[in-house]
Amino acid sequence: MPKHLKPTLDRRQVVSDILSERGDALVVPGLGAPTWDTAAAGDAALDFANWGGMGGAAMIGLGLALAQPRRRVLVITGDGDLLMGLGSLATIAVQQPRNMAVIVLDNEAYGETGMQATHTRFGVDLPAMAKGAGFRSAGTIYDAVRLERWIPRFYRQPGPIFASVKVASARLEMVLPRLRDGVAIKNRFREALLGSKAHE
Ligand SMILES: Cc1ncc(C[n+]2csc(CCOP(=O)(O)OP(=O)(O)O)c2C)c(N)n1
Ligand SMILES: [Mg+2]
């Protein structure tokens, strides 16, 4: 088991720091709090909010990464969401998408539903699992200095990349994306990505 420190990073700051360099990257925020963090950082048309579906963010990201190999795809999700779809680490590793990063905002809790402890609170090491599956690089980020070093990698280093960012389990204001309807979110995303081809 790795050294287990208390998670302290501010998740809103982490997400806004990461997304400030997004350019034309496609972003898949996991359900709940990662979606509120992403909305707080700007609610962009190239965000594919995964409204209430748990366990699927990384797989939606993989599909996008394979369909759009020239675009960077960032999955920004929670430890609970990733733990529910752990097999996705193996599937991503088999596909080896060079344009994909999976970033877990790891508060070691199921935040949305009342801060129940997840497995990472007990030392389950998600980056080690990603490495074991075959991700090209994986690591744990506990502080802002390390985060600053990792951000350019999320966008430029060959993937698949995995990072667990240890964020404090604070209760924050719920910032909802403007669109709530799944079809509307999908249509906005397709139009922003594909332009006139979105309707073909
Ligand atoms: C299949 C399924 N089970 C349970 C839920 C209820 N639920 C919504 S968010 C959430 C916790 C998500 O935890 P995490 O991904 O770690 O996000 P956090 O809020 O901690 O950032 C749960 C259990 C759900 N939406 N779908
Ligand atoms: Mg969590």
Write a concise keyword list for the protein shown above.
200 residues; alpha/beta; 5-stranded parallel beta sheet; two-stranded antiparallel sheet; 7 strands; 38% helix; binds magnesium ion
Structure explained in plain terms:
This protein is an alpha/beta fold and 200 residues long. The protein is 38% helix and 16% strand. It is built from eight helices and seven strands, in the order H-E-H-H-E-H-H-E-E-E-H-E-H-E-H. The protein has helices at residues 11-19, 33-40, 57-67, 79-84, 87-95, 126-133, 144-156, 182-194, and strands spanning 26-29, 73-78, 100-106, 109-110, 116-117, 137-141, 161-166. Magnesium ion is lined by residues 78-80, 107, 109-111. Residues 30-34, 52, 54, 78-81, 105, 107, 109-113 line the site of thiamine diphosphate (TPP).
Biggest sheet architecture: 5 strands, parallel
The third-level CATH topology is Rossmann fold
State the secondary-structure class: alpha/beta
CATH class bucket: Alpha Beta
**Uncertain spans, ≥5 residues at pLDDT below 50?**
none
Assembly annotation = single chain
Distance between the termini: 50 Å
Rg estimate, integer Å? 16 Å
Shape: globular
Strand/helix succession: HEHHEHHEEEHEHEH
Query: Strand order within the widest sheet?
Result: 1-2-3-7-6
Corresponding CATH architecture: 3-Layer(aba) Sandwich
Ligand set: thiamine diphosphate, magnesium ion
Mean pLDDT: 95
